[in-house]
Write a structure and sequence with these properties.
Structural class: mainly beta
Oligomer: single chain
Radius of gyration: 18 Å
Order of helices and strands: EEEEHEHEEEEEEEEEEEEEEEEEEEEE
Low-confidence stretches: 187-205
Length: 205
C-alpha cells in the first residue's frame, strides 16, 4: 500500500465537493480547485492521480466507506497518510485510505484495516487488529491483542484493557474491561457509565 509519510511526497491537486462546507458555487478552496466528485476522473486521470478520502465519522463511518468504494470504482488507488511525527512500528500492517495523525503510536504486529482514522495522541498497542471503517479519537489507549470490529467509533480518552473483542458498529467513550458484541454503545459521564437511568449498563440500539 502506498503511504504518504512525508508531506512532500505528493502534492494536493484538488478538493472534491464531498462535504457541506463547500457550496455548489465555489470553484476554489484553500487555494485549490474544487472539482465535482461525479466528474473528477474527467479532470484528473486515475492512472496519473491517487486519492485520499478525508471525511468524518458520520453514520458510523458509512459515508466515508461509500465514497472510498466509489473512488475505487472510478479507478483511483487510495493512499494512506501517516504524519511524520506518528510512531508506527515497521512490523505493523497498514491498509488503504488510513489516516494516522501526529503523536499517535501504533505498536508492533498491529493490523490496521482500510479506511481507518487514528487521531493524535492515540496509542494502539501490540498485536491489535482494527478492522475497516473505524475512527479512533484523541487520547485513546487500546491494549495488546485487542480486536476492534468494523465501523466502530472509539471516543476520546477511551481505555480498552486487553485483551478485548469489540464487535462491529460499536461506540465507546469509557474504560472497558469486557468484550462486547456488535451494535453496542458505552458512554462515560462523571466517572460512571451513563444511560437514561444513569446506571451502569451497556445500551443496545
Amino acid at each position: 500500500m502506498d503511504t504518504w509519510r512525508e508531506q512532500i511526497k505528493y502534492s494536493i491537486t484538488t478538493i472534491k465537493d464531498l462535504c457541506q462546507y463547500i457550496t455548489l458555487s465555489e470553484t476554489e478552496k484553500f487555494g485549490l480547485p474544487v472539482i465535482s466528485f461525479e466528474k473528477v476522473e474527467k479532470e484528473y486521470n486515475p492512472v496519473k492521480h491517487k486519492m485520499l478520502i478525508a471525511m468524518g465519522y458520520h453514520k458510523m463511518n458509512q459515508i466515508r466507506e461509500k465514497k472510498c468504494a466509489e473512488a475505487k470504482k472510478k479507478g483511483y488507488e487510495l493512499i494512506s497518510y501517516i504524519h511524520s511525527m506518528a510512531d508506527v512500528s515497521t512490523d505493523a500492517e497498514i491498509g488503504e485510505n488510513v489516516i494516522i495523525l501526529n503523536n499517535a503510536t501504533i505498536g508492533p504486529f498491529c493490523k490496521i484495516g482500510n479506511n481507518v482514522c487514528i487521531y493524535n495522541n492515540a496509542t494502539v498497542s501490540h498485536h491489535v487488529n482494527i478492522e475497516d471503517n473505524v475512527w479512533i479519537t484523541s487520547g485513546t489507549v487500546i491494549g495488546g491483542n485487542t480486536e476492534v470490529g468494523k465501523n466502530c467509533f472509539i471516543g476520546c480518552n477511551s481505555n480498552l484493557i486487553a485483551p478485548l473483542l469489540i464487535g462491529n458498529n460499536c461506540r465507546s467513550s469509557c474504560f472497558m474491561v469486557y468484550s462486547v458484541p456488535k451494535i453496542f454503545i458505552f458512554i462515560r459521564r462523571k466517572s460512571t457509565l451513563w444511560t437514561n437511568n444513569h446506571s451502569e449498563v451497556a445500551c443496545e440500539f
